[in-house]
Each structure stands twice: as structure tokens, then as C-alpha cells.
Specification:
This protein is mainly α. It has one domain. Helix content is about 80%, strand content about 0%. The chain is built from 15 helices and no strands. Helix 5 runs antiparallel to helix 11 and helix 8 runs antiparallel to helix 10. The longest helix has 27 residues.
Amino acid sequence: MIRSTWSIMKREFAGYFATPLAYVFIVIFLLATGIFTFYIGNFFDRGQADLQSFFSFHPWLFLFLIPAISMRLWAEERRGGTIELLMTLPVPLASAVLGKFLAAWAFTAIALALTFPIWITVNILGSPDNGVIIAGYIGSLFMSGSYLAIGACISATTKNQVIAFVVSVAVCFLFLVSGLPIVLDVFRSWTPPFFTDLLASFSFLTQFNGIVDGVITAKSVVFFASLIIVWLVANAMVVELKKAN
């Protein structure tokens, strides 16, 4: 299974760079992170040697950029009819699902790694806590993986990449805002406290902000890992169901 997963991953990863899409995405991502960090985030006006203004916008950037990556994972295969060919290969379904996901995740990791000039800049201008910054990158990688797993599952349900993108954004948005006060206040008035606490715990913002503050807890790691696993299992089930039909 490991060999077949690796083969699928390599094929999918190479496919990103076979078209200008990968380069366009990376350029847009780097420009967006720079604009949000230095201009909208008021990096220089804050006068602090940290990357809080850099990481604080990641959940919202990923909300639109990650579904743009995941929307093609399965929808393109279904639209082009190549999913039937993929399913006839001597490759376990789990390998196909995991290979596609890991390729997209690796591509996202490269985009994140290319933001290193911002890290260098803050080290030149001051003496930041690089441990906190590393934690922020790890949190961003975990969160992007969760976005990707959700998007991959939704991509498997349709042949239309636009529909996959819109639905993925909508579902990810629900996970993103579930911990905001404006959402919790709606439920707090008529539900028991444990329910609002549970709802808040499902928020990407709640889990991610804790990591960005430099605290990588087992709870956060388990949350993101569980979310990825659940949506990948759902992805496999959807593909199997569509294949049967």
C-alpha cells in the first residue's frame, strides 16, 4: 500500500506543476500573505518582533485558496472520465485517496515554506521567539490539511469544480466561525454550557490560535488529525459509492 500511495502521490504532485496553475497559486499566496502581514496587519506599526499579523490571516486566506487546490482532486477525474481508469488499476482505494491528499498537502507545504523571507525579515528587525513561529507554521500546516481533507471529500461528490469549490468554502467556513462569540451567543441562550463549549472546540480558530500562541497541545493535534482522518474516510466512501453507481 505504501508503494502505491507513493506512486499516486508522485503522479498527482507532478501534475500540479504540469500547468501554470501551481505557479499562479503560489504567486497569489505569497502576494496575499505579504499584503496581509505588512499592510493590513500593520506589521511595522505594531513595533513587535513576531509573526502574529502573518499567522492571524491564514485561516481566512486558506478558506478560499485551499478549496481552489482541492476542487480538482476528484471532480476533474470524474469530469474527464479518468476515475474509471484509476479505479481499474491495481491500486487500493485507500492509496488513491491518501496519495491525492498527500500530494495536495505537500504542494501546500511548499507554498508555506516559500514565505521564509517574512521569517528572515522579522529576525533581522528584532529577536522573535522562533519557537512560537515554528509552532505557527506547524499549526498552519495542520489547518491546511484539514481544509484539504474537507475539500477532497466534497470534490469526490461532483464533476463540477466550481460547485466543489463553493461547497468546500461553505463547509470550511462553518468550521472556521463555530467558535466566534457572535455564533456562540446564538446558542448560549437556549443550550447547556457543555454544548457551546463543544461547538467552540470544533472551530479552526479556537484550535489554531492556541498553536499560534506557541502552545501545541495534544488536544489540538488530535483535533486536526481526527478531522483529516474522518474526512478522508468519508472521501473513500464517496468514491466507492460513486463507483458502484
